[in-house]
Amino acid sequence: MELLERRRALIEERLHEVVDGVDPETLSDEVRHVTLSGGKRVRPMVTILACETVGGTAEDAVEFGVGIELVHNASLVIDDIIDRSELRRGTESAWAEFGYGPAIITSDGLLGEAFDLFASDPDAMRVVTESMVELGVGEATELSAMPSNEEEYMTLARRKTGALFRAAAELGAIAADSDAVTVEALGEYAERVGIAFQIRDDVLDAVADAEELGKPTGHDAEMDRPSVVQVTDLTPEEANARARAEADRALEALDRVDVADPTAEGYLRELAEFVVERER
User: One MF term from GO for this chain (predicted)?
Assistant: First the structure.
């Protein structure tokens, strides 16, 4: 755990540096509100661990890790506007705190700062751009053509959640100068972890106790969002089994990677287990 905390501290330190450098000051305050109000930093941790797994260092990957975290936070700002969610991570969401216009500008500012961190590497730019296209298609699909069966739901989960997870791991592999086969294997691992994460998140929203979960439940049903239990015939138990299957396939993808750091790879394996077993 101490090693994980060191990596997380590295991410937080660089994230603070980036936010402190944002200009003008008004935008800096809004970006700080969005990015420094909490968060598990799962995606940048995946970037660093993927890099270390194949022979790179945490320092090699931290720029890309912070970049993907900024992209993720930018997407959350827009999610909260679409959902009219007034809370994010226990504090007021960007639009509730600053208004719709400033929140949208904040999202744009986050993306600008993120792409500045990717700009030196064409492969990194390509990976992130592709993930954002997928994310955008997923957002549009959710608004205009909601899924009505399991296959359509899985496609949406891949685009809305899996795509950024995939980018996070691929960025780590790129930071370690990995070959295309390794980049793809780590990308598949993370995409499937992301899908499993989304399925489990939907189940928890539907069945968990709000106090135990640490946030309001029933949000998907209230907002008519395409949760796995809303748009498929799966029971919560069957949905959990689907999440487990995705996690298992993620681990199979990880088996294709030539591992240089077994400790880092072990953390990636633990993450695949955690996303399907978590209770909050």
Answer: geranylgeranyl diphosphate synthase activity
Whether 131 is in a domain gets the answer yes
Q: How far apart are CA 216 and CA 64, in angstroms?
A: 32
DSSP secondary structure code for residue 179 in this structure: -
280 within some domain = no
Q: What six digits make up the tokens of 178?
A: 């990995």
Alpha helices in 119-227 (DSSP H): 122-144, 150-157, 163-175, 180-207, 210-213, 219-222
pLDDT score of 217 more than 60:
no
The candidate with the shortest Cα–Cα distance to 137, out of 109, 154, 160, is 160
- Structural domain including 208 reads 2-275
The pTM (predicted TM-score) of the whole model is: 0.92
| One-letter amino acid for residue 80 of the chain | D
User: Would you say residue 136 lies in a domain?
Assistant: yes
215 has pLDDT over 50: no
pLDDT tens across 85-144, in order?
887 877 888 888 888 998 999 999 999 999 999 999 999 999 999 999 999 999 888 888
The CB density around residue 65, as the number of other CB atoms within 10 Å, is 31
Read off φ and ψ for residue 218, nearest 5 degrees. Answer: 75, 10
Tally of domains within the chain:
1
Of the candidates 139, 24, 7, the one whose C-alpha atom is nearest the C-alpha of residue 65 is 7
> What CATH number is attached to the domain comprising 23?
1.10.600.10
Contact yes or no for 22/227 (Cβ under 8 A): no
